[in-house]
Amino acid sequence: MNPWKNKDVFILTLVVGFLLVLSSCKRADSQSSQTVIKKTEKTQTVEVVHPSSNSFEAELLITGTAMPNQIVLLHAMESGYVKSIKKDIGDIVKKGDLIAELENPELYRLNQKLKAQLDAKKAIYDRLQKTYDQTPDLTPMQLLEEAKADYIGAKTELDVINDRQNFLLVTAPFNGVVTKRLVDNGALIQSGIANTNATAIVELQEINPIRLTIPLPESDASSIKKGMETQVSFPELYGESYTAKISRTANALDFASKTMQVEIDIPNKGYKIKPGMYAKILIKTSNRKNVLSLPVTAQILYEDEPFVLLVKNNIVQRVRLRKGLENKDFFEVLNADIGKEAQVIIQGKGLVKQGQQVTAIEKSSAE
Length: 367
Known about the structure:
Elements: H1 3-41, E1 44-49, E2 52-74, E3 80-85, E4 92-93, E5 98-103, H2 105-134, H3 141-166, E6 169-171, E7 176-181, E8 188-189, E9 202-217, H4 218-221, E10 229-233, E11 241-249, E12 259-266, E13 278-295, E14 299-302, E15 305-312, E16 315-320, E17 323-326, E18 330-333, E19 344-347, E20 358-363
Parallel strand pairs: 1-20
Antiparallel strand pairs: 1-19, 2-9, 2-13, 3-5, 3-8, 4-7, 5-6, 7-9, 9-12, 10-11, 10-13, 11-12, 13-18, 14-15, 15-16, 17-18
Helix pairs in contact: 2-3
């Protein structure tokens, strides 16, 4: 056998094998390239919704504090010592009820003295008047007028002392509840009119009606008006709910807290509401009917601002959002460039970006 002939056959076999392997690699590269092209050509599918009409009620839930309608430290208007205290802590009083009785021996003695002087001056005046009526020529008019003046002056002085003695009876200035007793029997009390540091006798609170005080934030101050209806509940009074209107507003912000004081009067005949209780107040600030809206799932945050993603001609567009009223499901759309026919992405927002081509599948906003 010819050795060179076998060598040629071996070399030919190697060449044919190499060519077969090379052809196989080219086919694999071609298939891989086609796969990449197919993947590149595939577009992202997103779910979109059209804006719909909805009605909204804007509500504000805020905490307030129950306060007395009136509260006063009751002082005596005349000095004396406490003879007796008629009302104690927790007692319900009506306007004019006797709270405490004071005594002042000096006023009593002065009263007796002025009574005696009045009787004497009245006798002189009566005698001169009788004489003048019978013999007017013998009684000078000036003498009669002086006697009359003395009599009237003495009567006025006695009336003043009587008033001061009446001030020793301390009475309730309004209906309420005694919440503090500050002195005991026998205590010396100075006049609250003549002394700025005089000791008070009791603290009196009017708690029917009760006055709710609400520190309203600056952001909500412009939407609250006198007469608006509210729903009030007290966590400590389970099941108790009250409907009341806003009674008054300060119409000015506190410079330190930037809040506006709002007050609500609530009837409290059974005295269930105690001063100091916390209350939850629900205020319906505004409402709008049949306005353009989107589900809350449509919005995204971009650079801390709300946006929505629209699909126009199968291209994603990011639009800054202008919102109005909202609730837990929908928000009002104020953008002039978003109409009822707009396609807004609600599913797949995190898979696409501005300018990307997508395939939109529509879904009703009512679903």
